[in-house]
Design brief:
heterodimer, A: 802 residues, Penicillin amidase (Acylase) alpha subunit, N-terminal domain, seven-stranded antiparallel sheet, 25 helices, 30 strands, 18% strand, globular, B: 120 residues, mainly alpha, 5 helices
């Protein structure tokens, strides 16, 4: 018996120990991975620690290839694919996306599918429910089905095969680090998952909805004051299509019943994405450049994350040779160039998300009335798995417009363009752009692109420059879509989309350049009406700069992309200073602003003072809004900064400058004085604690890992810029890729993005480009014709055999 | 001297088994070493612990060295551990403990009290 116990005891201990090593550990801060699986050096996290100066030359099999494919990696781990045909190139791209960004692809697809709670636990269930309620998962399924009608479907399947070949060959030791950390395994990829990644782009770029806040503001102000404070057009704007363009379109707008539902909405709409998310792009014609070659530039401003949203690569086949950045999960190069043309995109910002207030028939809320007729709700049961296997069910009600998104005191149904635009063959557009040889190829490539609407810019070695605002844009009445619409009448339904040949477009304009920076697409003469979230300063700055230079060089363009000059500050700061009393004007802080050149340099301190003053001023001017918000527990849309500045310029005694909680009647001068007083107190305090505080320390720029794990993120980046400057760096948004292409023969290009080619935190190529990006540096992009062109820049090669 | 030989063999056996199969298999080397070298219980546990510790630490250090400590630094930051040496120490301890417990079991399974003798 004693001997038996002497064996059983260590046996039990060993079993318990091995069990513990394989078991996730729940802590108050989250769940830790199984300690043994994670720490063992043979398959745990140590296996993700790549040798810093090592590159493994490989010769691998990739079943499904028609011929061998050569991949040459350059010194930044940018792969240059040399394939004999397009099918093989796309399959190789899928393989490389998976090899370097598998976890990023997985988590992006899961986010859209509403499946994050499976990995991160029940705390993300609300997020998942929101995604499913918005319809992302359903729509991705429809996209995947509809793509079967696209010419490119077999290519998307080839891309998927490439990804799955990589996944199938993975051993646990080779899993990307995050799979080990969060203790789950990669799933096979599918066309539907590619569609989910497309939906994540839609979510980021066109899901903003301010209808609740706008409706509340309308209710608070009334029609007249609302129109005064929220004019549809900024008269100072420099739109994408230049002012004065004559439109040949004849469009008589249908009379729409746009009366919004009246009354306050106490619900809150989550707007994860900032108002002016966007980008810059421009192309200057040969006549405006010093050496007579067109130049195209693009810097998309998106969430700055690690891994980066972009994966840089070259795809060379026997018929085309594209280079640029791709989106892991979606085939082809999204922004880039080939031997003949270059292209790029910025976000359009049109409002394509509308709420309809439902008139229920009775308290069961299962049927509703439209045009006096009864419509019945369809029910969709959603199943959510949470970490640990617990299953939760949720019912989504579907109306003719879309899902019931909010159902509290009042019920709202959401109509969102991506859910309608199920013929959205985005891959077809990218493919055709990759293969474009001239203007007509470019124009034709855009036909299949529906959502999210983009400003597609173009330049060619033939000398053409062009820009088309492309995407499905619902035809709307004057105010439709700005407010919550009544669902009682079908008159408020969307009335089709602006036809392809009538979306705003410009080619080879007299001014010698085309440009966009998320501003309004047109002036008010454009026959179609639209509402959106537009930027008011970058476009103006850009057009002023491009218009004033007729000997443009590549260096000028790089410098412009990095410009931290802020036109908003240049317009507002003098107004504020001019309205200060003499005594205040000699104050330390106001004196500093008097000497400022309005550049948001990382080492400057004036941006801190100005930002503080701007915020204090803005909040005081619109104090009635915050007062009403507090009183009624609602959220109100506030006037834009450009409107605040125009009011200060044109009508300094306007009643809105009066502070409602004081008996006196204040004017602009009083508000300026009071806001400056507050600013002085704040600046005295913040500079007392750190006299050397500069913009980079005050406005902390971070590039977070997608899981928000701080250890895998980079914080405190030394970079200037501000959202309204061309170098639109915000706390964790900004230029996610800077590209300058000279359309010479041969074509030359420069680019950089804040991250690295590898998604593995244990790789030397995980974040290696961030420093150069923050300093405004560029890398020469090696657009090779053959592997031999890369000999001097080569890190190593991989050969894939059928 | 023979103990040193056993120790070195055990390290290589742990590495070999861990690479060939599942990492837990590395613990199983004890079932070979203990009966072949007829180690005493205490010696089995002690040498087993050291062999597990050194094989895990050694390999982790080798990987970490080539990586210039980039990833271990991040993992340290994630776990709020400032020193990479502690990360290496935790790694080694987990391996050492696993091999030691397995050695204890092996000693109990294969060796009776009278048959145990010290390899010297």
């Amino acid at each position: 018996m004693k001997r038996l116990w002497s064996v059983v005891l260590p046996a039990l201990l060993l079993t318990g120990y091995v069990f513990l090593l394989h078991r996730p550990i729940a802590t108050s801060g989250g769940t830790l991975p199984p300690i043994g699986k994670f720490f063992n050096p043979f398959s745990g996290f140590w296996q993700n620690a790549e040798a810093i100066d090592g590159f493994k030359e490989e010769e691998l099999k990739l079943p499904g290839l028609h011929a061998p494919v050569s991949i040459v990696y350059d010194e930044r781990l940018v792969p240059h694919i040399f394939a004999s045909n397009e099918e093989d190139a796309v399959m190789t791209q899928g393989y490389l996306h998976a090899k370097y960004r598998l976890w990023q692809m997985d988590i992006t697809a899961r986010q859209s599918a509403g499946r994050l709670a499976e990995i991160f636990g029940q705390r993300l269930l609300a997020h998942d429910q929101r995604m499913r309620r918005m319809g992302l998962s359903n729509t991705a399924r429809l996209y995947a089905t509809n793509w079967k009608k696209c010419q490119e479907y077999n290519l998307i399947e080839n891309y998927t095969k490439g990804i799955n070949s990589f996944i199938e060959g993975l051993k646990y030791a080779e899993y990307p680090l995050e799979f080990k950390l969060f203790n789950y395994a990669p799933e096979p990829w599918s066309v539907e998952k590619t569609a989910l990644v497309v939906m994540s782009m839609n979510l980021m770029l066109c899901s903003r909805n301010e209808d609740l806040m706008a409706t509340n503001a309308l209710n608070y102000l009334g029609q007249e004051k609302f129109k005064f404070l929220f004019p549809r057009w900024n008269p100072n704007q420099s739109p994408v299509i230049p002012k004065g363009t004559v439109w040949s379109i004849k469009k008589s707008l249908q009379d729409l019943d746009t009366n919004p539902s009246i009354g306050y909405f106490t619900e809150e709409m989550i707007n994860d994405y900032p108002r002016s998310i966007g980008s810059n792009n421009w192309a200057v014609s040969a006549e405006k450049t010093e050496d007579g070659n067109p130049i195209l530039c693009n810097d998309p401003h998106l969430s700055l994350t690690l891994p980066s949203i972009w994966y840089e690569m070259q795809m060379k086949t026997d018929t085309y040779n594209a280079y640029g950045v791709s989106l892991p999960g979606i085939p082809y190069v999204a922004i880039g160039f080939n031997d003949e043309v270059a292209w790029g995109e910025t976000n359009v910002g049109m409002d394509v998300s509308d709420f309809y207030e439902i008139e229920w028939i009775d308290s069961s809320k299962t049927s509703y009335r439209v045009d006096g007729k009864v419509e019945t709700i369809k029910f969709q049961i959603e199943e959510y798995q949470t970490q640990g296997g617990k299953i939760i069910y949720d019912t989504i009600k579907l109306t003719k417009w879309g899902p019931v998104f909010l159902e509290e005191s009042r019920s709202l149904a959401l109509q969102w363009l991506p859910n309608e635009a199920i013929d959205n063959c985005i891959v077809g557009t990218f493919r055709k752009l990759n293969q474009s040889q001239n203007f007509s190829d470019y124009y034709d490539a855009l036909r299949g692109f529906i959502s999210p609407a983009q400003n597609f810019i173009y330049a060619s070695i033939d000398g053409d420059v062009a820009l088309k605002v492309q995407g499905a844009m619902p035809i709307k009445g004057e105010d439709e879509g700005q407010f919550i619409l009544t669902g009682k009448t079908s008159k408020n339904d969307w009335n089709g989309y602006i036809p392809f040949d009538e979306t705003p477009f410009i080619k080879n304009p007299d001014r010698g350049f085309v440009s966009s920076a998320n501003q309004q697409s047109t002036d008010s003469d454009y026959p179609y009406k639209y509402h959106g979230y537009f930027e008011d300063y970058r476009g103006r700055t850009l057009n002023q700069q491009l218009g004033s230079n007729n000997k443009i060089t590549v260096e000028d363009m790089q410098s412009l992309q990095n410009s931290t000059f802020d036109l908003l500050a240049a317009e507002l700061c003098p107004i504020l200073l001019n309205h200060l009393d003499k005594s205040a004007a000699s104050n330390l802080w106001s004196s500093a602003l008097s000497d400022w050149n309005y550049y948001y340099e990382s080492g400057a301190r004036q941006p801190i003072i100005f930002e503080t003053w701007k915020n204090e001023f803005y909040n005081l001017v619109w104090d009635e809004f915050s007062n009403e918000e507090e009183k009624m527990s609602i959220k109100l849309l506030r006037p834009e900064m450009w409107r605040t500045i125009s009011l200060a310029t044109e009508d300094p005694e306007n009643i809105f400058f009066d502070l409602i909680q004081t008996p006196e009647v204040e004017t602009l001068k009083d508000v300026v004085a009071m806001s400056f007083g507050n600013t002085t107190v704040i600046c005295d305090s913040i500079f007392a604690s750190d006299p050397n505080l500069t913009w980079k320390d005050f406005r902390h720029v971070s590039i977070n890992h997608l899981s928000r794990v701080p250890a895998f993120s980079v914080t405190g980046i030394d970079v200037g810029g501000v959202g309204t400057a061309i170098n639109a760096v915000k706390e964790n948004h900004g230029p996610s890729w800077r590209m300058v292409v000279k359309l010479s023969k041969p074509l030359q290009a420069w680019g950089i993005y804040p991250g690295g080619q590898s998604g593995n935190p244990g790789s030397a190529f995980y974040k290696n480009m961030i420093h150069d990006w923050s300093q405004g540096n560029y890398y020469t992009l090696h657009h090779a014709s053959s592997p031999g062109d890369l000999t001097n820049f080569q890190l190593g090669t991989t050969t894939l055999n059928p | 001297m023979k103990l040193l030989t056993v120790f070195i063999i055990w390290i290589f056996l742990t590495l070999l088994l861990s690479f060939l199969g599942h990492w837990v298999l590395g613990f199983a080397g004890a079932f070979l070493i203990v009966p072949v070298f007829r180690l005493q219980l205490a010696t089995s546990i002690l040498i087993g612990f050291c062999a597990g510790l050194f094989s895990w630490i050694g390999f982790a250090w080798f990987v970490d060295h080539a990586n210039l400590g980039q990833l271990s630094g991040m993992i340290g930051s994630l776990l709020q551990i400032k020193s990479t040496f502690i990360i290496l120490g935790i790694t080694g301890f987990l391996g050492g403990l696993g091999v030691a417990i397995t050695a204890w079991l092996a000693a109990r399974v294969f060796l009776t009290d009278s048959s145990q003798k010290v390899v010297s």
